[in-house]
Write a structure and sequence with these properties.
Pathway (chains A, B): Cofactor biosynthesis; NAD(+) biosynthesis; nicotinate D-ribonucleotide from nicotinate: step 1/1
Keywords (chains A, B): Glycosyltransferase, Ligase, Phosphoprotein, Pyridine nucleotide biosynthesis, Transferase
Number of helices of chain A: 15
Helix content of chain A: 25-40%
Number of domains of chain A: 2
CATH architecture of the largest domain in chain A: Alpha-Beta Barrel
Structural class of chain A: alpha/beta
Largest sheet of chain A: 7 strands, antiparallel
Largest interface: A-B, 115 and 115 residues
Organism (chains A, B): Arthrobacter cryoconiti
CATH topology of the largest domain in chain A: nicotinate phosphoribosyltransferase
Function (chains A, B): Catalyzes the first step in the biosynthesis of NAD from nicotinic acid, the ATP-dependent synthesis of beta-nicotinate D-ribonucleotide from nicotinate and 5-phospho-D-ribose 1-phosphate.
EC number (chains A, B): 6.3.4.21
Oligomer: homodimer
CATH class of the largest domain in chain A: Alpha Beta
């Protein structure tokens, strides 16, 4: 596995809103900065009409947390621009996160108010992580949630992530990673291949055909150089003529053809019939061109072998960000006792206190509810699956959640969690969350 | 100015789709890789109903192009995973872009088919830049385009970019930069402050109030530590009580109060009246809470002094990506002559050849059309403003377009270009592009 510093990831400490550090300064002044505190990342709602969300980014956050330090360049910037005072600068110079991190496994499904990530530390330590926690989780979860629906729509046919050009270059790497966690077979993004060991794949672009004096010349170059198992792009000029030429040049072992425009449904049928009539029964058909989960579902009856998905994957298919928030839910008072806290403003109620969460499963192993509570875990009747894991203990990473192994584990977790869901989870139509979130108020709200 | 390598930006060369490198391999095999080629980035359409687009990302692309090299780690990855063959690996090992780059100034307005970025080089060199060019331009232009509408809606009131937590941590930096280019006054993103020298700002979060035993204690800590000119968040519990307390603690010099929930219109009126009645006529009111250009416009008559904009800015307010494409438009043939090329597939027509572009201005300096043509510039009647600049000459950067100076120049360019637009550009309602794109077919399509 490679690590963020090996691929040159910059410090992560300034991926932070100005006010996190000024709040730190004011809290250091009042002394409250050192109060033991519990912050929780959760979503009050799913994107409009979605049946479930998928946790993405936990591994990336844990990797980046190790780099969350304030070196000379960062401190100079903060000092020169008078963002914070000297007392705060020296606190930051010594900062290394030393608290506990708990949360849902990456790849797990989540629902409204699921306690997705919990940070237990001092106010000072937990406060300054807010922006970074949310940037990573909100982006990656939005992509993973959209990707999961595409995978369901695609059934057993593989999906290839191809959206890098439609999003920021670093988002593209994270989006590829999130797509693979949700079940994508591979990605076109080479940097994601390097960082996370995921399979990369590609075909060819129209420019490659246009570069050559004829489509035939282009196909011949590609087949000679890449082998007959390559995938040829057949819609630059005339699809039927291109398919005939492709088969003539590559022979019966031609790996695949790609269709990137026009009426994909009709074309897939025509091209399949043509390929079969030419004896190329094993040549696969890949379709691309602004696919989303609905377009994929609409192609279910077409003879398509794989889907390349771009724009709508990396933009979250209508929900480009998850709406997770990061709230102080519990902190010690002057009496040394933890107490839950919550603001009173309209329409933004939070439930205070550190939470546990369980997925209630019926005797057939099908999920029926998301149980969230404060305090001690209730008696387990054997069918409740605990959802909260510990990722970091006193600043030390619990192994297995990061890097390439973390991605593989998250992929497995996602598949298993999805398999537990009732059938309604597979409906693409708008609706309510597929299972309700229920609060258990069994024990008093102490930690 | 700091440079990408100083802030630890990773190599940019693998922000690339797999197929760019396999096309390179096949083109090296056929020999066509070395054909002089012109690629162009443009958008066939604006996001649905938008009146104009704003070019963002040009400076970032030029900064990253300098880092677009293939070192040992990248080459090892490509070799180990058999992405390309040895001939291609040695070509990549020697790669340093040595062509020309032309395009619209960053901050400039664009319209359907404006030639936003043109790369003139060999096919090999220009092809492998495709994904990176588009990632940067599509993301940053989407944000700049949305930000520009927010600025228009805000009129003379400053907008503060606060969306970092709603997008990938690196997108957040680029989004802040794009927002500032479009006219945002400042950002909450510290990393953007460090890299591009833009002003950072912040207030306080609800957690800061909840941390303390009372709102009064929290306000007192913030005012004592940050000074009376700070902005206090007044909607954690009861707004009226909080404003009274804030004034009591900070006195007549209290800088501002922030409202983050509820009916912002009614609250702004109430809070302004209360502040004035307490003698705090200079205390500013900042509003936040899921603002977009429409919500900002709806607050035009409210006594609001500044807007904090988050989610809808960093997600492009409904258009999270610009739909720019990067197409081979012209290349030399075996006869050594340049010829325009374009694919024939349905609904995706491109016009071949290297382009110029002019903004036609009427005698009062108001834009009336976007003129795009192939070949020699037409006679200028004195009212046409040339839009295409040269950014790189034989691989050497033309100074002035990158870093902090590049951001300042782009900000000025955007303001000047917007001032040229007819009044309809300021309409937030859906409509056609505010000026038409016209093709001039004056000269034959040679370069």
């Amino acid at each position: 596995m490679t690590t963020p510093s090996q691929w040159g990831q910059p410090r992560t400490s300034l991926f932070t809103d100005h006010y996190e550090l000024t709040m730190l300064q004011a809290a250091l002044h009042s002394g409250a900065a050192h109060r033991a505190s519990v912050f929780e990342a959760f979503a009050r709602r799913l994107p409009d009409g979605r049946r479930y969300g998928v946790v993405g980014g936990t591994g990336r956050f844990l990797e980046g947390l190790a780099e969350f330090r304030f070196g000379a360049q960062e401190l100079d910037f903060l000092a020169h621009n008078k963002v914070v005072n000297d007392e705060t600068l020296s606190w930051l110079a010594d900062f290394k996160f030393s608290g506990n991190v708990y949360g849902y496994a990456e790849g797990e499904l989540y629902f409204p108010n699921s306690p997705i990530l919990t940070i237990e530390s001092t106010f000072a330590q937990a406060c300054i992580l807010e922006t970074y926690v949310l940037s990573v989780l909100n982006h990656d979860s939005a992509i993973a949630s959209a990707a999961s629906r595409m995978i369901m729509a695609a059934g057993s046919r593989p999906c290839i992530e191809m959206g890098s050009r439609r999003t920021h270059e670093e988002s593209a790497v994270a989006a590829s990673r999130a797509a693979v966690i949700a079940g994508f077979h591979s990605t076109s993004n080479l940097e994601c291949g390097l960082r996370y060991g995921v399979l990369t794949q590609g075909t060819a672009a129209h420019s490659f055909t246009l570069l050559h004096d004829s489509e035939e010349e282009a196909f011949r170059a590609q087949v000679q150089s890449m082998g007959a198992s390559t995938t040829l792009l057949v819609d630059t000029y005339d699809v039927e003529a291109a398919v005939r030429k492709a088969v003539e040049i590559a022979g019966p072992d031609l790996g695949g053809v790609r269709l990137d425009s026009g009426d994909l449904l009709a074309q897939a049928h025509d091209v399949r019939a043509l390929l079969d009539s030419l004896g190329n029964v094993n040549t696969r058909i890949t379709v691309t061109s602004d696919l989303d989960e609905f377009a994929i579902a609409a192609l279910a009856a077409a003879p398509v072998d794989s889907y390349g998905v771009g724009t709508s994957l990396v933009t979250g298919s209508g929900a480009p960000t998850a709406s997770m928030v990061y709230k102080l839910v519990s902190r010690k008072g002057t009496d040394g006792e933890f107490r839950p806290v919550a603001k009173a403003a309209k329409n933004k109620t939070s439930v205070g206190g550190k939470k546990y969460a369980l997925r209630r499963l019926n005797p057939r192993g099908i999920a029926t509810a998301e149980l969230v509570g404060i305090g001690a875990l209730p008696e387990n009747d054997g069918n409740d699956r605990p959802l909260v894991h510990q990722f970091m203990t006193n600043g030390e990473l619990v192994p297995g959640w990061t890097g390439q192994a973390g991605v593989q584990r998250a992929t497995a977790r996602h598949a298993a969690s999805l398999a537990e869901m009732p059938g309604a989870a597979r409906r693409l139509q708008r609706g309510d969350p597929v299972i309700p979130t229920e609060y258990l108020q069994s024990t008093p709200a102490h930690d």
